[in-house]
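Quarterly update, task 2.4: adenosine monophosphate-bound model.
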Amino acid sequence: MLYKKFIEFYEKIQGTSKRLDKTYILSKLLKTTEDEDIERVTLLVQGRVFPACDQREIGVAAKMIIKAISNATGYSSNSIENYWRKLGDLGKVAEELTEKKKQSKLFSKELSVRKVFDNLQKLAGVEGKSSVDIKIRIISELLSNASPKEALYIVRTVLSELRVGIGEGTLRDAIVWAFFPKVVGIFVKCPHCKNWVPNSNKCPECGSDLNTNFNDAVKEADGRILRVKEVEEIKNKEIKDYDFIICPDEKTAREVYNYIVNCVQDAYNILTDFALVSVEAKKGILSLKKVTLKPGRPVKVMLAIKVKTLKEGFSTVGKPAQLEYKYDGFRVHIHKWKNHVKVFTRRLEDVTHQFPDIVKAAENINADSFIVDGEAVGYDKRTGKSLPFQRISQRIKRKYDIDRMVNDLPVEVNLFDILFYNGESTLNKPLRERREILERIVKEKKGVIVLSTKLVTSSEKDARNFFNESISHSNEGIMFKNLNAPYKPGARVGYMVKYKQIMETLDLVIVGAEWGEGKRAKWLSSFYVACRDDNENILRIGKVASGLKEKREEGLSYDEVTEMLKPLIIKQQGRYVEVEPKIIVEVAYEEIQKSPEYESGFALRFPRIIRLRDDKPLDEISELNHIRELYENQRNRKTKDN
Ligand code: AMP
C-alpha cells in the first residue's frame, strides 16, 4: 500500500468526530489492506510502530527531528525553531517547509507503508556512539521523499503525537466490520448509494438518511448467506466466508453481532496487540477463539470499579463476597514457563530486570508454568511497615544499581489471582477455584511473597471492621470480589470493585501554567497550583493537567481558564507563563506526598481540577498546616464510610 493512500484514509478518520464514521472508514482501510501490510497498517493507524506491550521505543527527540527537517528541506535549525514557535507543532513545520521546498525540487520516489513503517521501526534498534546521526539520517531520508502531507504524518508518528483519536473500541469494531459477515439488521443496504452500512440515522458512505427496517434489510441480502436461529448455532462455526448472517429477528441479530464483537475483544485482551488480532481475525473466528495466554507475552489485568459505600460493594459483586486488603503498591503479573520468569506491570511494561527479587520470590510458587496476579508493596526493612507506592515507584524505571535498590527498597508480593496454571488457562474458572489453586501452590514467606489477606462475608459490619483493619495496616481500602466470576483480562465488568477512603479536596490558587501542545497548542493546559502558609506566603504544591474539559458545554474548559489567566500573565518563558495568583480552583487527588520539588514540601498524586472556586478569596485557600495534617492522617486513616 502506498503511504499516500494510507494517509488519505487516516485524514478521513481524523476529519470526523463521529465514532461510527471513524469505524466505518477504518474498516474500509483494513479491508483494502493486503495481507502483508495488515500488521503495519493496524499499528500505524494507532500512531504506533510497536504494540503497546513492546518495550522498544522510537527514541527520537525534537532536536533530531529539527535536524532531519533541516537536512531534507535546506532550512537552518534556527529558522525551523522559529517556525515551530509560530506553529506549535513540528509536524506542521515539516509540512510547510516541504511544501516550500517542493517548488524548487521534486520529490523522487513514492513512499510505501512498508518503507515508512520499517524505517521508523529501525530507529528503535539504533544504538551506540553515532546513533543520533544514524537516526537523523533515517528520518531525513523519509522526509526527503515525502510530500508535505506525508512529512506531517511521519513527524507526528515519530514524536508519538498521532496516538489520539482512535480508541480501542473503534479499532475492535472496525476489525469486526472488515473481516466478518454483515449481520443483517445491524447492517443495512443504503437505498441511495446501495452500500451495506451500519444501521444508524445517516449513511456513513453518502450522508443520506437511512430509514431501513429489519425486514427490508433481509430482503436486500444477496450473496453467501448464513441463516442462524440463535446465537448458540455459530459458537463453534467458521463464519468468515459468508457475506451475510440473517437471523429471525432484530434481537437475535444483536446477540449474534455482540458475540462476534466479544470474540474480537477477548482476543485483544489476551494478545494486547490489535495487529495480531487483525491477523487472526483475517484467518477466521475460530482462529480468534483459539487465541490463548502464553506465559512471556503480557496480558491485560482485570480492572476494578469504584464504589462509594460498602453496601454498593456487596450489591455489585453479590453475597457472600470475597473481601481483600487493597494494597498500595503496583500491580504485577508474574509469568513462568520452562526456566524463564518475567514480570510485567499493568501497563504491560516488562520490569523483570528491575525486580530480580520478584523473580526469586516466584521460586516459592510450585508449578511448571503459570501467570499470577498480585500487588508488589514496598516496606521499611527496619520496621517491617509498608511504604506508600511513591517511595518504591522509582524502582520501576530504574535501569542500574539494581542490587542496591533491592536491598534498600524491598518489596513483598501480595498475590491474589492466577490466570494460567501448568499449561492451561484458568481464566474461565470461578474466583473461588482460582484462589484454591493459589493457596495450594504458593509457599508463603513474609516480606517476600504472600497471599492477599481475605475475608469471605455477607455482613456489612464485618466489612467495615475489615476496612478499618486494612487501613490500620497502611493500606488504601478494600476490594470486593465476586466468588463465581471468571477472570476477564482488561475488563472493568464489576467482578471486582474497590472501596477507598475519600480524600478531602484542596482549594488552591493557580500561579503558573504551560501552553499545550498539538491540538491544545492554543490553550494553557497544565497549571501550577499553590497553597499558603500562615505568613501569607504562596507556596507551590503541584502541577495539575487534568479535570478541565475541551468544550465549554462539558464544564470548566481549558479555553475558559486560558481566557481568565491571559490578563494575569506576569512573565513568559518558552511555554511557561507565570500568573498573578488570582484564580482559585478546587483540586482532588489520590494522595499527598512529600516532595522537594515544590516550595510547600509536598506534592499531589493524580491531582485533578474539579471546579472554579471564584467564591473564595485568596486568604482562604488551603493552608500548609492543614495539608501537613492531612498528610499525617493518610498514614493512619480512619473509616469515613458514607
Ligand atoms: P485503582 O488503582 O485505584 O484503580 O485500584 C485498582 C488497583 O488496586 C489494582 O489494579 C491493583 O493494582 C490494586 N490492588 C491492591 N490490592 C488489590 C487486591 N487485593 N486485589 C486486586 N487489586 C488490588
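Highlight for this quarter: Residues 305-499 form a domain with the D-amino Acid Aminotransferase; Chain A, domain 1 fold (CATH 3.30.470.30).
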